[in-house]
Amino acid sequence: MAMAVHICTNFLHSTHTVPSSLRPYPANPSSTTVVRTRVSCLSSSSSSPRMDPQTKFMEFPHVSAPIRDLMLGLVSSVETHLGSSLLPCSLPPDVQYYQNPNGNAEGTVFVRSAIPSSPVDFILGSWINCKLPSGGALNIASLSTYLKPSTNAPNFLIEVIQSTPTSLVLILDMPPRKDLVLYPEYLKTFYEDTELDRHRQLLEKLPEVTPYSSPSLYIRALISPTAILVRIEAEAGEITRIDEIIRDNLSPIANEMIEVWLSLCASVDKEVGEAEMAYLEKRDLITKTKTIEIDLGTNIPRLFGQEIADRVLGVLRGVFNV
Q1: How far apart are CA 165 and CA 139, in angstroms?
Q2: Name one Pfam family in it (predicted).
Q3: Rounded mean pLDDT of 129-152?
Q4: Helix, coil or strand: residue 148
Q5: What pLDDT, in 10s, does the model give residues 284-300?
Q6: Backbone CA torsion sign across 294, 297, 303, 305
Q7: How many CA atoms lie within 13 A of 155 on its CB side?
Q8: Backbone conformation region of residue 134, classed left if phi is above 0, alpha if psi is from -120 to 50, else beta
Q9: pTM for the model
Q10: What three-state secondary structure class fits 289?
């Protein structure tokens, strides 16, 4: 979520010409089929049907159908695997779905914390739609997972930033929680033995795919050496081609990575000692604090105004325990 908001704000406030590959496109029309699925978040009788937070997150209403299917599949995999160890989402309705006063930016937040005995801390999903002054919109969908300091395994992250019907930026990773130079066995266990780098290599063989470098040095310092950060751009008018890449290339890779995370990271405690647990607590706290301070705390007020930002960030600080 933080990475995507950072990128979104760059578009809204940049005084430079937007590159052709990242120019906004007209807001996505309603798709022919609206995907409906079970959502664990609490509903609010005061919410109108259009803004009902119980369904809003899982609709992913502004992205293309293949991206919606990808995100719904990942959320479903996580919820199915973790099952009853995940608690219902209990965020306030006006945090689950929020909109700025001008009506040109809206977003959702979906959080499910885990029971105390689970190595999972919580899962966090979101989408943001930003209508741009030049016309069109920038649409973002993300899913992150966070583990407790009782395990040292990596987290999971996917963010899809779609700026035109024929271009998008993908961030897909299992961000490490230990120094990979100091702990080479960590590198071997989670990144070498799992052969995660082959996904990036295969994806970058496609002519439409080029490496993407985040403008944030902090974000680039957080990711793993096997992280997939790419820009995918088809020729103008070839919307079906970008949909094919998402369906036939991105989705299988993302689904395989979430299965690796679920089986290797989310289901097994790594039996860390007291010293390592203290290290992980400190590192996790720093990471979460920086996410609030550097990215969300700066950019959400610009998109949604200070009042909404204070409400959303206040709840997220509680979720992050910072």
Answers
A1: 11
A2: RCC_reductase
A3: 90
A4: coil
A5: 999 999 888 876 777 78
A6: negative
A7: 22
A8: alpha
A9: 0.84
A10: helix
